[in-house]
Amino acid sequence: MGAGAAGALVAIQLCETAARRRTPFELLLIDPAPEAGRGIAYSTLDPRHRLNVPAGKMSCYPDDPGHFVRWLCRHGEPGVRGGDFAERYRYGAYLADTLGRAIMAAQGVVTVRRLRTRATGCRWTTLPGGDPTARLELADGRTVDAHRVVLATGPSRANAEWAPEALRGNDRFIADPWAPGALDAALGQGDKEDVLLVGTGLTSVDIAMTLDRPGRTVHTVSRGGRLPQAHAVDPLPAAACTTPLHGLSLPALRAAVRQHIGRVMRTHGDWRPAVDGLRPVTAEIWTSMSLEERAEFVAQYGSLWNTHRHRMSPATAEAVARMRRTRRMRTYQGRLAAASARPDGSLTVSLTTGDGPRTLPVGWVVDCTGPGLRLSDTADPLWRSLLDQGAAMPGPLSMGVATDDGRLHGADGGTTRPLWTLGAPRRGELWETTAIPEIRAQAATVAEAVLDPWTAPALPAGGGSARRRTRRPTDASGFPLSTHAAAATAYRLGVDRLLKVRAGAPQALRRSVALDPGFAVGHAALALIGHECGADVDVSRALADARRAVRERADDYERSFVDVVSRRVLHTPADGDAALLRHLGEYPGDALALAVAVPTIAFSGLRDLDGTTALRVVERTAPAHGESWFHTSLLAFMRQEEGRYDEAGALAEQALAAEPASGHAMHALAHVHYERGDHEAGRERLRRWLAHQGRGGTHRAHFSWHAALHELALEDTVAVRRRWAEQLSPGKVDGVRALVDSGSLLWRARLAGAWQGPFPIGDVLDTAPVDVLERPATAFVALHAAIALTAAGDLPGLGRLRVHALRADEVQRSVIAPLCTAFEDILEERWTEAVRGLERLLPRLPGVGGSAAQREIVEETLLFALVSAGRCDAARGRLEERLDRRSSPHDRRRLTALSS
């Protein structure tokens, strides 16, 4: 009942949880609004009405905080950040869209009906031996029956008890400013008349901005006379209170909170982090207070708390300040004492203020006092029927209703009826319960409670009894999967394509979770390839789905795999590596996990500085894989990293003989040819493989990059330009792959003097998402973002990347941040400083991941800086060292030029 924000959030959780569990039911959404999700709060069309919580805290999902921000980025606001304050109407669109997607994803499991009317009554009956059933009476005369009822009715309407009798019956009194068309008259012919808003909270601020007109004064009055405080433009993180607050008397609590705010003010110079730090413990503090203390708090401190806790966005605060400076908005502390009609239909109002009585001529009086606190006084027929029959009872201080974690208490104190509520009706027991961060958590809890009695084992594809299935399907490595056969088949296909480095893995994995939304490992694999392979995947969403699903059905292997992915995405590289090593120690035959561990072409791998850990893992897991082509491919790659090129080449050829499409084996062979200096042979082998067995491969751009390295070494600049145009230019390659391969090749070509004419690095940067350039998730991607920004001469971009790196994981802090500084020195032609910085970084580069050939670009940049700094002897020494390892016509010519 109710399909505004709270109802939509519950419906989203119900649909998605039911789809994961394959729990069929019918969902009725009863609400008269034309669109679900908006309710009163998010129906406003005024673009000046903004959320009073940053976008980064407004996700529908408690376990996926960035969901709303990503939605905004996909829907016309690509540069939005988590700290921005979106328009309220946009948030309503987000809720409606997310609900629509959840309903579509649950098709075949959940049947959804919307009844555009109001519920006016709810009567409970219990048949002998049956469950309680609700008969819902609707405003259009129909009745419907339901087995579970969620009251998502939002805040109760104010009853304007404060208003003088003469005012309540006057047409110039607007009792509900959010009602459709309520403000039309004040915005039309009467838009020059002054207006009085009773209330100075967030509602008053919104209405004041809507009614603001040149020549009009908007007067506001309240007992406290306080307007909401403003959010900081550059907010600081919340500061938790170090003093235990639970169980303190009200005077002791007040003193402790003031001390907390004082400490934070001295440390940060701002009170906001202190108030934000109280948010996680507000409900706990509230429940520990006696009823008398709660009543005293509401009477004495409620207004002060609300003005500091529920703040205006910076843009709104600036608009209000401008209105007050120009006297178009005036605020009074006091109350409305009387009102009378004037001959022209306008009003004369009398205020009692701290400065004495004041009389104002106004055209309109608007009730902006906000929702009523006492649900027991409500005139709403639905709540009235529940209270009158004892199905609900007033909550503490008669605010809202009494519940047990959202389930309503009846007058007898029991919770026998399957009847829940959330949000504003829980105000008396929680105090803070009207903001999205609280409501979304309650929605998840309510959905879980509603579905728990119905939850059954996951159904196999095509229906049928789950009990008949005695064996679970397995993945390619033989591990059982908690899903049905069709989803497992799609998953095996996706993993097979990943292991062969062939196209189609994301599509197959998406198919697996579409067939079974509760397939935890499928969601985790999607999150993994989005995070580490640059696949077009909403990583946070996929990971949240995996973590939800793994709690509901999974074995130890699946829980371990999801934990690995979670730690690689959400935690530090060290945590991710430790989890991966534990997993492979327990499950050495897991080919996908092994692929993740080895830093080859697909994944960033284990990020130890010298690569020995990955090698030990490959060697230790050999007995579990036998003579498989995949394990042989990885061993070939590790042997070439050790410099054992003959052995690596033989292993790669062995793997290719068993599986000619093995991208890992061909990749290892490409490195062998490059490190041996077999440039002609290497280029030709790559050409043949790409034309035949590698035609369906992913990362074709990377193999083309390898071929281009041979061509740079051979100083075949015509071939380099042709390969760029045909295989590596934007449009042929996009996103992260364009940074890693196309961008780095352009910089190498420029350093080698092999690129003349227009330099298309800007086209490469245009294909990369802003987040990848400024907030890369891994050090490997960050390295290539820095290279591309340097090639583009983008000093500000390097600065932003450096700031991000300093706040990221240890490898980014210790390697990427100083690398950005060294590249800035390159662009500013501070050659000595650049050389010093790059020389210090070279030994630490293996920790970034990737191959030696990829990281070599930093040494190429160092050689350029050495020559530019006039340190030709040092440059010669490095080139001689390299030529001792491998042949290169380009390096030989450079050495000759430096020696002449």
UniProtKB/TrEMBL annotation:
Gene3D superfamilies reported in the protein's UniProt record: FAD/NAD(P)-binding domain (3.50.50.60), Tetratricopeptide repeat domain (1.25.40.10)
Pfam families, A to Z: NAD_binding_9 (PF13454), TPR_19 (PF14559)
SUPFAM superfamilies: FAD/NAD(P)-binding domain, TPR-like
InterPro entries, alphabetized: FAD/NAD-bd_sf (IPR036188), HpyO/CreE_NAD-binding (IPR038732), L-asp_N-monooxygenase_NS-form (IPR052189), TPR-like_helical_dom_sf (IPR011990)
Residue ranges, annotated region (Disordered): 459-480
Limits of the FAD-dependent urate hydroxylase HpyO/Asp monooxygenase CreE-like FAD/NAD(P)-binding domain: 2-154
Cited PANTHER family: BLR0577 PROTEIN
Protein name in the entry: FAD-dependent urate hydroxylase HpyO/Asp monooxygenase CreE-like FAD/NAD(P)-binding domain-containing protein
Native source species: Streptomyces yatensis
Lineage of the species this protein comes from: Bacteria, Bacillati, Actinomycetota, Actinomycetes, Kitasatosporales
